[in-house]
Amino acid sequence: MGMPTLLLLLAALLLLLMSMSMSGCSAAATYKVGGLDAWGAPPSTKPDVYIRWAKSVPVKLGDAVFFLYPPSQDSAVQVTAKAFAACDVSDPLLKLHDGNSLFNLTKPGRVYFTSDAPGRCRKGQKLSLDVPAADGKLLKPSADDEAALKALASLPPAAAPTEALPSLSPDDDDDSGSVPRRAGSIALAAALSLAAALML
Ligand SMILES: *[C@@H]1O[C@H](CO)[C@@H](O)[C@H](O)[C@H]1NC(C)=O
User: What residue stretch is flagged as signal peptide (predicted)?
Assistant: First the structure.
């Protein structure tokens, strides 16, 4: 094996190592909330769409969620557990109304979102997400968290019992809108094929 080949092989190895660290489970993902066309009041056929969506996305620390909606009609506000339970949107932690609102999940714990358009929170346009700590463990919910969860469970009043949900078809769950970064795996594939070519 000549010197240039050796160098190439070393380069391939380096690339491989780099891409491995990039494509690890730490790659950040961005999720479009709800998997619907837009963030809005839940359709009558899917009153618990945001509850089910929250259960379907494997969010982790560093991920982001985005809300897509017509900015003239809606908003995305992050609220406390208490405000979430009471649907009190008068003093949100964070309010975005640009129509394409990105929230970064940078702290472990439960986060709460709703809309401050009149009546929307009470119609079930609310989302609670559990962000695990860096080690993947969920934090112990506070009393406020428990109360918020209870409020969510009682929403909306017209919701059908779980076993009678007609919309629990498999194709419902793959539109969670995950856009994980693929760069890592592409680099990995490139490095692997380069290494394979060199070994022939
Ligand atoms: C989330 O992070 C992106 C950049 O990564 C930034 O543009 C955006 O403003 C952040 N969102 C919030 C609510 O801070």
Answer: 1-27
Domain ranges of the chain: 30-180
Q: Which residues line ligand 1 (CB under 6 A)?
A: 64, 102-104
The answer to whether the predicted template modeling score (pTM) of the entire model surpasses 0.85 is no
Q: Which CATH architecture has domain 30-180?
A: Sandwich (2.60)
For residue 126, give both structure tokens. 């609310």
96's tokens = 């975005």
Over its length of 200 residues, how does the chain's per-residue pLDDT go in tens digits?
666 776 677 777 676 666 655 555 568 999 999 988 899 999 989 889 999 999 999 999 999 999 999 999 999 999 999 999 999 999 999 999 999 999 999 999 999 999 999 999 999 999 999 999 999 999 999 999 999 998 888 765 554 444 444 444 444 444 444 444 455 555 555 555 655 666 65
**Going by C-beta distance under 8 Å and a sequence separation of 6 or more, which residues neighbour residue 180?**
27, 28, 29
Nearest residue CA, atom 13 of ligand 1? 103
Q: How far is the CA of 102 from the centre of ligand 1 (A)?
A: 6
